[in-house]
Write a structure and sequence with these properties.
The complex is a heterotrimer. Chain A is mainly alpha-helical. Chain A is built from 10 helices and no strands. Helix content of chain C is 28%, strand content 21%. The N terminus of chain C is likely disordered. Classes of the chains: A mainly alpha, B mainly alpha, C alpha+beta. Chains in contact: A-B, A-C, B-C. The interface between A and B is large, with 43 and 48 residues.
Chain lengths: 257, 316, 535
């Protein structure tokens, strides 16, 4: 995971070639010393594209998780802490959002907003909000009436101060776990969107796009253009799942996702 | 119990009403409409003609008017007309429902059939090679895009056997074997992810239950290990699994969309994508509504089931 | 027969590669019966051929209708010489080429039992030319311009039709012979034909299940004796490209769909199923660059020429088309096309020479126009959000970078693409243009004359327009060919719509399919009247 992050950050250095440079004379080169993972149908270097693709895929994964996590966390915190009318007003909205299957909502949004990186991030982040909010709300509820919170209240701390200083830190752990788990999901959903023609647009493709575009046409002719992006996705999602597992054990052994 | 169900039902109806507004507004935000698409194939844009079609399709009226019109139609059981095909939307959607439902049920069966036993085995044999092997397989399931798995299956089938499942829907009464073969592979592709999830859920909740006092007591009483595992632990571990099934159902539908596309099954899920790409509003909004109803109802069912299974939950 | 068609084999099959397709046609006597499973990639936008301009409609629906005349389905190259009668038994030019008279076949009935007469013919072409006084209208009418020269259509008796033209137009007969020119029934409102089919053709529409299947069934009362051979045709819709190629490979499909056979797919099929028959033909579709003549700096001829020079056509064919395309000018190249420029003249056009030298020339032109290292030209290349289009644009952008142009990609959803082009809201566009008939009139009037709605680059050269009108009226084919060549050269030199390549179709079918002969243009060979199978 860390390795992927580093790779993405330093894509310019790690990449051996320009990922969008086409080369008519060297299409479909198998993996070799010149092109470590071969070249694709336009003669572009697969390795460099994967390295650059890590940026897009991770950008999507991290941005959606953060966006969804932050919004969901805020909403859940507010809902759980304020309770009463606020809670009653927010809950139906969350129910409404959660009623849509994730991919369906993302699809409709991606189609509605037009294809761009930002659209895809928003389209995937929005469905995360209610899921995160739910966890945040539950966690908030469980400590809202804890003794030390009561004590702070007794000492005359403002509501905002209590929420930020006393409750938030305790909600953060489950939020982090939840968010990490979403990271892998986000990358997978982006891949599915790409497959259905509504993912992150070219020229710097996400892994999902590399997979879905090449797979149909070139899988048999040049398996490497399909295998490596597929591996990249699986490894990162795998890693984020492991990370999620580890964090869960570390931060909150009782939480289940 | 009855009051609980009535309350949950009322809530479900409210939720659905809200969802209908969201769907409607979202779809109308989209740039490019069906009129542009109709013209796209011809490449001509005659403004007068375009206006006429726009008017015909009510697209020049305020969104609120269109919405009211839609809800009125829905209430009357009229699902509108597909812009794309000029056919009643219901006529297009209806034959597709059984396909998706069957695929969904089969995928769920695959998920439970593979996920539950493997989870139990994993928990019972914690920290053995078998456990690690199963965990890796299940993590792989969570790491693989469903469409990619589907493509791999097709690729391997055609390369190795020169055979792929039928491309046209095979009715079960016409050819049961062909029908099952047609659904088996997509169900595997769509269900793998859920199987992996259920495996992980089962394993962790089993482990938790196995640590509980009454299980230890069972052990101490000298009950055979197997009986302890199956009779006591599994029964109690089922609760969280049911919950996860409820939320997983919504996820499964996402898997069905891509799986139906890859395996060319004429289901609602795949059709939804096409309708979205075509901005065929009546079809999209009715399909999404349909999916929403299914999800809301399945959540309701899970809630009720949950309440039934767990005596600690009060029906308030 | 089909002399210029090349049968295409790979590796060890080179020996049979040059055998004419007629070889298998004559090998056995045609057999009746059987249902053909044909590939289809998507739902047709509608079932009404006159309202659409995509192979997705022609491919399944042509078998339902007939034309007055048709390019012989068994001959690979369409030309004036291969036209045969269908609903017309005889035709002659009269009045110094100003009118065209048809004698119609008697005793033909529509699929609903109504008799076919000259009324239907007059109705059909009045409908598409939007003659005043005709009640019905097509919702979309993409080929109205084909009939721009028609003054009036007379039906003096039930079996005679006379087209009176404003001026001689020899190509008019070819336009009528296209798959895009079926005769519609006068007694059915055209809107109904969007979802059903009432024709006179060899097959009737049995069922259309959107997203799944278009099923045709043999017309037992077809006016040609003993035809069609097939009991029916199933056009199976498979949206996912990898899946449909796999379906052909696995034998779930018998024939591919025109335009679907790329070189990569063909090689893969041939390797997996050595007996697979693959024809190498053209599609009459070209890949081109649209340069917006109305947008600075493309108002400057030097900048336009630099764009065209910068793109190495050979490299394009190799990279984007994997070798499955040929260079050419605005008319389909030989040997498939009738009007293509000879190779010697093609070699003089921009983008075909030594890449390094051309890039140097392009750079020179740009610096004359005021662009250079300190002040690079920035352009946006727009294209459709479809893999192939994006590949095209990616290549073009890379080529432009090599002459110092800072080019970026803009992807446009299909829904907005043509509307955007028509508005002129783009700088450079990576585009595909399909041409209905391999004929100068069909191509030039649609894509190149001033003010044509599909002249997306808004190129306008009155002198070229005059040449186009002149060739259209020329009765002598030799003279006309010479003038058409002149026009083609002018169009490329002016950079009206720089042609990158003409696509080759690797048309694949199982060896038990007979008499399905792909033409140089994809739109006119799907009648299926003569096709038979011996599985």
């Amino acid at each position: 995971m860390l390795l992927t992050l580093l790779t993405a950050a330093a894509a310019g250095l790690v990449a051996t070639q320009d990922p969008v440079r086409t080369d008519a004379a060297h299409t479909f080169l198998p993996p070799g010393p010149q092109h470590w993972l071969g070249t694709d149908h336009l003669g572009r270097d697969v390795y460099s594209r994967i390295v650059h693709g890590a940026r897009v895929s991770l950008a999507v994964g991290i941005a959606t998780s953060l966006l969804g996590g932050a919004c969901g966390g805020a909403v859940g915190l507010a809902s759980g802490y304020a309770g009463g009318a606020v809670d009653l007003a927010i809950q139906p909205i969350l129910d409404i959002m959660q009623g849509f299957p994730l991919l369906v909502l993302a699809l409709v949004m991606a189609a509605a907003l037009g294809p761009s990186l930002l659209t895809v991030i928003v389209a995937i982040a929005v469905p995360f909000v209610p899921r995160v909010a739910r966890v945040a709300r539950a966690a908030t509820l469980s400590i809202r009436d804890a003794a030390y919170v009561e004590a702070a209240r007794g000492l005359g701390a403002s509501r905002a101060r209590i929420a930020l200083r006393h409750i938030l830190p305790n909600v953060v752990a489950p939020l982090i776990v939840m968010t990490t788990a979403q990271l892998g999901t986000a990358i997978l959903v982006e891949a599915s969107l790409s497959f259905l023609g509504l993912g992150v647009p070219e020229p710097y493709p996400s892994w999902g796009r590399m997979l879905s575009v090449s797979a149909a046409e070139f899988a048999q002719r040049a398996p490497w253009v399909v295998i490596f992006p597929g591996l990249a996705i699986s490894v990162v999602v795998f890693a984020s799942n492991l990370l999620g597992d580890g964090l869960r054990d570390f931060l909150d052994p009782r939480l289940r996702i | 119990m009855r009051r609980f169900i009535v309350r949950r039902l009322a809530l479900a109806v409210l939720t659905l009403a809200g969802m209908s507004v969201v769907i409607f507004v979202l779809l109308r935000l989209a740039p490019g409409n069906i009129v542009d698409l109709l013209f796209q194939s011809a490449g001509y844009v005659d403004p007068a003609e375009k206006q006429r079609i726009t008017h015909e399709l009510l697209l020049d009226r305020p969104v609120a008017v269109q919405y009211v019109q839609w809800v009125r139609q829905l209430a009357g059981g009229d699902l509108g007309t597909s812009y794309r095909y000029g056919l009643p939307a219901w006529q297009i959607i209806r034959p597709r429902i059984p396909v998706t439902v069957e695929l969904g049920v089969l995928a769920l069966a695959v998920a439970i059939g593979l996920g539950l036993p493997s989870g139990v085995v994993s928990a019972a044999r914690q920290h053995t090679a078998l456990d690690y092997g199963l965990r890796i397989v299940s993590l792989a399931g969570l790491s693989m895009p469903a469409f990619w798995l589907g493509m791999l299956i097709i690729l391997v089938l055609v390369r190795v056997f020169g055979w792929i499942p039928p491309m046209l829907y095979v009715a079960p009464q016409a050819d049961l074997r062909g029908h099952l073969l047609q659904f088996l592979f997509p169900a595997l592709a769509a269900g793998y992810r859920s199987a992996a999830l259920i495996n992980r859920m089962t394993r962790s909740s089993m482990l938790e239950v196995l640590r509980e006092d009454y299980v230890r007591t069972g052990w101490a009483k000298g009950l055979p290990g197997r009986a302890v595992v199956y009779r006591h632990a599994l029964r109690n571990a089922l609760l969280p699994i049911v919950t996860v099934l409820g939320t997983e159902f919504a996820f499964l539908i996402g898997g069905l969309i891509v799986t139906e596309t890859v395996f060319n099954l004429p289901g609602v899920a795949r059709y939804l994508v096409e309708a979205i790409l075509w901005r065929d509003y009546p079809v999209v909004q009715n399909l999404v509504m349909f999916i929403a109803i299914v999800v809301v109802l399945s959540n309701l069912a899970v809630d009720i089931l949950y309440a039934r299974l767990d005596p600690r939950i009060r029906y308030t | 027969m089909a002399g210029r068609m090349l049968r295409w084999g790979l590796g060890a099959l080179v020996a049979s590669a040059l055998a004419a397709p007629s070889a298998w046609g004559a090998a056995a006597a045609p057999r009746h019966g059987g249902v053909l499973n044909a590939m289809h990639r998507e739902d047709p936008p509608s079932l009404s051929i006159h309202e659409e301009s995509t192979i997705s409609t022609n491919w399944p629906m042509m078998s339902c209708y007939n034309n007055l005349v048709l390019f012989n389905p068994l001959r690979g190259q369409e030309s004036a010489a291969t036209i045969i009668g269908e609903l017309a038994t005889a035709w002659r030019w009269q009045d110094g080429g100003r009118s065209l008279a048809f004698t119609l076949r008697r005793g033909v009935r529509w699929h609903d039992g109504q008799p076919f007469t000259s009324k239907d013919v007059k109705y059909t072409f009045d409908l598409v030319r939007e003659a005043p006084g005709i009640g019905a209208r097509l919702r979309l009418n993409p080929r109205k311009q084909w009939y721009a020269q028609v003054q009036a259509i007379d039906a003096p008796d039930p079996y005679t039709v006379v087209f009176r033209l404003k001026r001689p137009q020899p190509s008019f007969l070819l336009l009528l012979a296209s798959g895009y020119s079926p005769i519609y029934p006068a007694h059915i409102p055209p809107a109904e034909l969007r979802t059903r089919c009432v024709g006179t053709g060899p097959f009737k529409l049995k069922e259309y299940r959107p997203g799944e299947l278009i099923e045709m069934v043999r017309n037992p009362d077809y006016f040609v004796k003993d035809r069609p051979y097939l009991d029916g045709i199933r056009f199976i819709i498979i949206k996912e490209r990898g899946t449909r190629i796999a379906a052909l490979q696995a034998g779930r499909l018998d024939v591919i769909m025109p335009q679907e056979g790329t070189k990569t797919a063909a090689e893969q099929l041939k390797k997996a199923v050595p007996s697979m028959v693959i024809f190498q033909t053209s599609q009459n579709i070209n890949d081109n660059i649209l340069v917006n003549f109305k947008r600075p700096p493309f108002t400057d001829a030097r900048v336009r020429r630099a764009m065209s020079l910068a793109i190495d056509r050979r490299g394009y064919i190799q990279a984007v088309r994997q070798g499955g395309a040929v260079p050419g000018a605005s008319m389909l190249p030989r040997p498939w096309g009738v009007w293509g420029l000879p190779a010697s003249e093609l070699a003089t056009l921009p983008g075909t020479g030594d890449p390094a030298r051309q890039r140097a020339e392009a750079r020179q032109l740009l610096s004359e126009a005021g662009f250079g290292p300190g002040h690079p030209l920035r352009v946006v290349v727009s294209t459709r959000a479809i893999a192939l289009y994006v590949d095209m644009a990616t290549y073009v952008i890379d080529q432009l970078k090599q002459i110092g142009v800072d080019a970026t990609l803009e992807q446009v959803e299909s829904a907005q693409w043509f509307a955007k082009l028509t508005r002129g809201d783009y700088e450079l566009g990576a585009n595909l243009t399909g041409i209905g008939v391999d004929d100068p009139d069909a191509n030039f009037y649609e894509n190149y004359v001033c003010g044509s709605p599909r002249n997306y680059s808004q190129y306008c050269n009155p002198e070229v327009d005059r040449m186009i009108d002149a060739q259209s009226q020329m009765p002598d084919p030799v003279q006309r060919t010479r003038l058409v060549a002149e026009i083609q050269k002018r169009l490329e030199i002016d950079g009206a719509r720089p042609i990158l390549a003409w696509d080759i179709d690797y048309y694949a079918m199982w060896p038990y399919v007979h008499n399905l002969v792909p033409h140089q243009s994809v739109y006119s060979y799907a009648r299926f009247q003569e096709v038979w199978i011996d599985r």
